[in-house]
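pinging the channel bc i need a second pair of eyes. not urgent but kinda urgent?? the chain im working w is below, pasted from the shared doc
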Amino acid sequence: MIVSQARELITPTIRTTMSGYGSRTGEFEGIHDDLYVKTLYLENNGSSMMFITFDLCHYMYELNEEIMGYAAKKFSMPYENIVVNYSHTHAGSKILSPTEKKSLSPLHDFYISRAKACIDRAFLSKFEGTMQFCKTSGRWNVNRRLETAEGFRLMPNHNGITDDELNMIVIRSLENDIKTILVNYSCHPVTLSATMFLSAEFPGRLCQLLEAEYYGSMAFFLQGAAGNMRPLITANKGKFKPCSFRELDELSSNIANEVKRAVHSKSFELVEPDFKGVKFKIDLPVEPLDKAYFEEKLASAGKYLAKKMQNILDAWDTIEDKATVNCGIIRFTDDLFIPYMGGEIVIEIKEIVQNVFKPAATVFLGYHEALTYIPDDKIIDEGGYEGFDAPLNAGFRGPFKKGINEIIENAFSDALQNL
C-alpha cells in the first residue's frame, strides 16, 4: 500500500473571535497550542482514498467542496473517496456557519490556502506500508441529556447511553515502524469552556502524545457521534464544569494509554483495502413553527439568541423546511466501512447507521460539515436542546419532524447497495 501524509498550521495569524460558545464575543487572548489541517492519502492495488482533518469546530460545506475537488485533481483520484472531518474543538478560531457569507471572514481564504498547501506537501512524500485495524472501548464520556421536572436539560446523565467505541487504524512502514495512527472516538471537546486561549483541545493533545510515543509518526483524530457526548471529567456534582489544561492532559493521556495498550497487545487485524466511495445527500424534513413564535422569542431573548431569531425572521420566505445532510461511505473491505455524515450526530443515529452494515465493522464519523444536531425520533419526542432548540439556533424555522430514523436507514441502505 502507498501512503502519503502531511500537516499544515492553521493557527490564525490575525486576532479573531473563537468558536464553540455564543458567550464568546471577544477575540482570543493567546495561543496555548496550535491548530492543524492534516492530509492522509492511501492507495492500494489501483484504488485510493483520502482523509482531510481540521482542528476546527466545524465549517460550511463550501470549504469541503473546494478542497476535495483540489485533492481529487492533484492525486488523480475519485472525488467520492475523499472524507473531510472536523475535530469539533470548542477552543478553536472563528468559523463560518451555513448562513454566513465568505466575505465575512478573512480566515476563509486562509483555511483554503493552508489546506491546499497540506495536500501539496502530502503529494511530495510517499512510502509503502501495511494497514491494521482494531476496535476497543473506553469510558471517557458521559451522556449530556438529563430528564428533569422542567424537561431535558444539558446536564450529566450517568445512566444514559454512551458511545464507548474506540476505533484505531495503524499504518506501519515495511520496516514495521508505526507511521500513521487514526483514532476515532465520540466526545465533545468542551473541557476548556472558561479559557480564551486557542487550543486543539483533547483531540490535538491526544495526537501530540501518540506522535511523541511513536517517533516519526503522524496521528489523526476522527470525531464520531459526539452530539450528546461530553467529557466525563467535566461532570461535577450534577453540572458541567470548565476544566484546566492539566485536566485536559489527563483525559488525553488516558485515551493515549488505551491506544498504546492495544498496539502493544498486538490485537490489530491486517487490512488489505480495496477503496470505493459514494457520496449522497439526505433531506430531513423540518416542522415549521408560526412566525409569531420567533417574534415573541426575539422580544424576550438575550443578545446572542435575539440575533439568531432575527436572522430567521429576515430570511423567513427563503428558508427551506428541510435540512440537507451531506453523507458518504468509504468501503475499505467487505468487513470494514467508514460511514460519515454532516452535522452533530447523536449516538442513537450512529447505531441506526451501524445496523445497516452488520456484521461488518464500521468506523462512524460525524462532523463532515456545519449544519445542526441530528437527533433520532425519540429525542425529537423528548425535546431539549438537541431535539428542539438546536435546529432553530442553526437557522431553521422549527425542529425536525419524526421519521428521521427510517429516512436515514433507507438512505444508507441504498448507498451501500450502490457500492
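so The chain has a mean pLDDT of 95. and Residues 287-318 form one domain. — does that match what u expected or am i reading it wrong
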